[in-house]
Amino acid sequence: MMTGLASPRANPWIGAIAPYTPGEAKLASGVQPIKLSANENPWGPSPVAIEVIRAHAHGVNRYPDGAATRLRQRLAFLHGLDPERIVVGTGSDEILQLLPLIYCAAGDSVVHVRHGFMVYPIAARRAGAEPLAAPDQDYVADVDAILATVRADTRLVYLANPNNPTGTMIARAEVARLHAGLRPDVLLVVDQAYAEYLDDPDPDGALELARHAPNVVVTRTFSKIYGLGGLRVGWGTGPAAVIEALNRVRTPFPTATVALAAAEAAIADQEWVARCREANRNERARLAAAIDALQDHGLRAVPSAANFVLMTCPEHGPLSATAIKAGLEANGILVRHLPSQGLPHALRISVGTHEDTSRLIACLNRLAA
Fold first, then answer.
1. pTM more than 0.85
2. For site-directed labelling of 292, which of 11, 41, 99, 253 has its Cα 20 to 30 A away?
3. CATH number given to 47-268
4. pLDDT at 323
5. What does the DSSP 8-state code read for residue 256?
6. Helix axis angle, 257-268 relative to 47-55, nearest 10°?
């Protein structure tokens, strides 16, 4: 054995990455929980997609279509896009992670909203870039603050709209104003993971921007309203040059055969999507109203356009975020506490089924009694 030689060293910026921590899925007791910690669709995928998954199980010995040709064609038809300007990835996360690797050099910067998706700073640091957090206004993205945070070395701006973990959203005019205020060499990445929870097929106009602007990319996912989080399918669209670059660096087979088939079936069943959208709207309203009924106890539901509600809590006492989280877990309910995202005083609660919501509301009322 050779000794005294230096061992392999990771790039220095890798050590600055705080690893992504998913929502908890298990209780210490081992009891099956009501899982409201990961913004999943509690009604699951379309029954048509489930049947397709079963039917395609026999073909997993074959490599998938790395170009996701049929899925891109179906996405293009549904959204009025050019299939050649769509890229499919292992969840939208893969696309979000690759963009700084393509457009940033070590020492550049990437801007995101302060209370935003934790993948953004990870993606920036992975490329050796510095993540810059722009202040928000009452948990809503502030376009002026984002533009003021952009530096000469900024190469990319992330905007989740609706935003995770706050659920808030800025309007079409504000997205257009943000884009207009950026230099042409700055790539605006609009993460529309929760867009299908709104009635408008392009609720903030980002898809339309991506059709024409040379510096706008939109990402979407099958993990939320389509209920395919376990299969990891996402997609993005934007300028031809950006899509070409993504296709050069993505993995050769980013999406499994079964996942591709399930996604193709899922987007064909828009009736199921509409039913999930309506059920989510109803249960989200029930949850928000129940939280706001406890305002005298210091609880507040931040207005949400997604499939979760951010509940702010008193900083101390029996209804602090940590105390409520523990109380919910004692009753078999898992929610998300995000102190690492500057929200030690808040819990993100995913929308569940009617029964899930009823049990959660009853538990909150008992804790506040």
1. yes
2. 41
3. 3.40.640.10
4. 98
5. -
6. 150
Q: Where are the domains of the chain?
A: 24-44+271-368, 47-268
Q: Is the pLDDT of residue 13 over 90?
A: no
Using the structure block, give the residue that is written with the tokens 């050019």: 82
Pairing label, strands 234-237, 86-89: antiparallel
134 and 145 Cβ atoms separated by less than 8 Å: yes
Q: Does domain 24-44+271-368 have CATH number 3.90.1150.10?
A: yes
Q: Which amino acid is at 10?
A: A
Residue type, 336: R
CA 57 vs CA 51, 60, 71, 88: distances in Å: 10, 6, 18, 21
Dihedral sign of CA atoms 272, 160, 294, 33 in order: positive
Would you give the DSSP letter of residue 317?
Answer: S
pLDDT digits 0-9 by tens, 163-212: 999 999 999 999 999 999 999 999 999 999 999 999 999 999 999 999 99
Contact (Cβ atoms closer than 8 angstroms) between residue 259 and residue 228? yes
Instruction: Sort 278 into a burial class: Cβ within 10 Å, 0-12 / 13-18 / 19+.
Output: exposed
SS3 state of residue 19: coil
Per-residue pLDDT reduced to its tens digit, 94-107: 999 999 999 999 99
